[in-house]
Amino acid sequence: MRLKHWLSTVLGSSLLMVSGIAAQAQPPGMPVPMGGPPGDGMMMPVDAYGAAPAPSYGYGQPPGYQTWPEMSAFDHSYSQQRVDRNGTWTDDTNNAQRRYRFEADYITGRTRLSNAYIGNPNAMTYIQVLQEQLGTQTQQGGGNQQQSGQTFLTAFSQQTSANGTPVLGQPPHFELYGAVRLQDVHRKFNTDGTRATWGYDNPDDSGLRLGFLYNTDNNFRYSKRDLLPAGKGTEGALLNHLLQLPEDPADPNTVLPRDLSQLSQYVYPASVTRALENNLYNLNGLPLNDGTLTVLPDGTHFGGVTAPYDLDFRIDMQTQLYGGNADWVMTPVLNWKFLKVRPVAGLRYYNLNEKFGFYGRDSGLAYGPSQGAGGGGGGNNTIIPDQKVHSTPDGIDNNRDGIIDNAGVFEGSGQVQQGGGGGGGNNQNSGATFLQFHDQFRYPITSYLNNNAVSNLAGGMVGLNYDLGGESLLFTGSTQFGLLANYEQVKINGDNIAMHTRESNLLLPSATNATPNAFAGSLTQYRVSPMFQQSINFEAPLFRYVPVLKRVGLLEHAKFRAGYTFMFIGGVIDTANSIEWNGNPAAGLFPTIKERRNNYTSDFYNVGVSWEF
Questions:
Q1: Lowest-pLDDT range of 24-33, 252-261, 318-327, 515-524
Q2: E strand segments, 428-581
Q3: 42-58 burial, b for 16+ CB within 10 Å, e for fewer?
Q4: Does residue 160 contact residue 171 with C-beta atoms inside 8 Å?
Q5: For all residues of the chain together, what is the average pLDDT?
Q6: Confidence class for position 268, pLDDT limits 50, 70, 90
């Protein structure tokens, strides 16, 4: 309260004039016995007849009452005096007791993924690999193969107009074992968790907050097979059996490479080719440095390969964040009737566990359209081990054979395939040849890679807490900044990361080492990561208005709360991007850890209950 100078003079003079007048007051209470209880070792006085004297009554301290600090009528109070900037004295007194709080929330939201390119971005694409090999083969072979190869690759190399004319300068409309870019697939994924906070506020509005956060995710998975048209993959069990089928002495094509197309005549009449065409997919490729990747003088990269996967291609990612905080909330720097702003300082600890996983599976087969007699027999010499021919993945059965986007043949738009090459096929046999160049007991081959990072982050933070409103409706917010010491551990492991269509790139198993193509590595380091967190919540006693919930004793004094939080931690390991994609075990090239960083961000909504007692 600010006093005017003239009011101070008048008020002071009046108080001075009345200071000499005697004042009367009512006694402070009922008379109490003046005699206290006898102490240890003391005898109760008695009169001549042996009776204790009657107690005397008067005014004073009750028996057993001890003065401050043991006991005080003003317990839990505080008195604060301060001078404002203009010299005015203010006084603030509060007899309120300490108030305790507990909050429990369910949280759900999104966590950033990664913008990683899965594979070596400088390696040749699968189309470039085939163009290089088919070009060499065309010079040695006939014109039919050149025309077939050019027709097949053109549709995947560039867009075409309505009449089939290539549109120069346009990106490919369809991909043939294209690499995965996570920014094109999914930038964020859903996350769920819990959060709890316990603390108290002192009478001067300072206080303590102890919190716990557990934030995990619903595993993000990218699977190219999930994007295939309906009806694909209906004969997978048959395919797996065919790939492991031993050589048949009665089969004239027992000399490697074995032509699986011929098995229709001996084992599964008329169904083997359909199973292969319907169950070998144009999924994704994995670009790798196989030792041939070089940098030309002009900065252009040349070489490398892209390993195709025609059975399965998956990417899995998972993020787990848990930790706690201890914050000291200071007395308000702004304390209006409905607005309170308080500085806060405290400690933070978070454990951030991020996992990246790649899984691929390939048949090891090479396939393409036959150039000779029906049944595929005449085309065996025109297919190279790296070659996997597919129809453009437009989701249309262009040749109307009952299979959408066949493997082994190229379905020209609007064309009907009536047979294979020059030999009398039918509309169930599109003239595809499926060759097995490798040891069928090693294929299908499975490749995988896991890269996991654990970041232990601990440090201090400062910020502001602000409250707006009252008992019926309260809005609370918090803005916090901090620096966290980051102790990171990264571990990588995997197997069969190579151009697996070239068996010479893989090491052979032995009696002493059954997995010679497996690899593992680790990295440990320290750094500092900045942190920022913004949260907004509102609380209201809504449960008292809900017919059923208002009768629940636990919710009698509870408040409903809901809000939003954004969290940022800078410079943490990006597990999907921290991989050097090398792949040629026979040449001693394995994937390794290559440090690349990203910012961890998470924004989530929370709903829960709070109690104050």
A1: 24-33
A2: 432-436, 445-469, 474-495, 518-540, 558-573, 579-580
A3: eeeeeeeeeeeeeeeee
A4: no
A5: 79
A6: low
Residue carrying the six token digits 């303590």: 208
E strand spans, 336-444: 339-362, 365-369, 432-436
Tokens 């996570």, residue?
A: 182
Q: What is the pLDDT of residue 372?
A: 45
The DSSP secondary-structure symbol of 422 reads T
Give the pLDDT confidence score for residue 414 in this predicted structure.
39
Matching CATH number, 100-110+184-223+310-360+446-612, of 2.60.40, 3.30.160, 2.40.128, 3.40.50: 2.40.128
User: Residue type at 258?
Assistant: R
In contact, 389 and 130? CB cutoff 8 Å:
no
Q: Please state the pTM of the whole predicted model.
A: 0.76
- What is the tens place of the pLDDT at every residue in 442-480? 888 999 999 999 999 999 999 999 999 988 899 999 999
Q: Which residue has the tokens 């009452």?
A: 65
Q: How far is CA 301 from the centre of its chain?
A: 33
Return residue ranges of the chain for CATH 2.40.128: 100-110+184-223+310-360+446-612
pLDDT, one tens digit per residue, over 558-583 is 999 999 999 999 999 999 999 999 99
371-380 pLDDT, tens digit each: 543 333 333 4
DSSP string, 140-171: HS-HHHHHHHHHHHHHHHS-B-TTS-B-TTPP
Instruction: Give the whole-number percent of the chain exceeding pLDDT 70.
Output: 68
210: number of Cβ within 10 Å = 14
Q: Which amino acid is at 208?
A: L
Three-state secondary structure string covering 178-235: ECEEHHHHCCEEEEEEEEEEEEEECCCCCEEEEEEEEEEECCEEEEHHHHCCCCCCCC
Q: At what angle do helices 272-279 and 236-243 cross, to 10 degrees?
A: 110
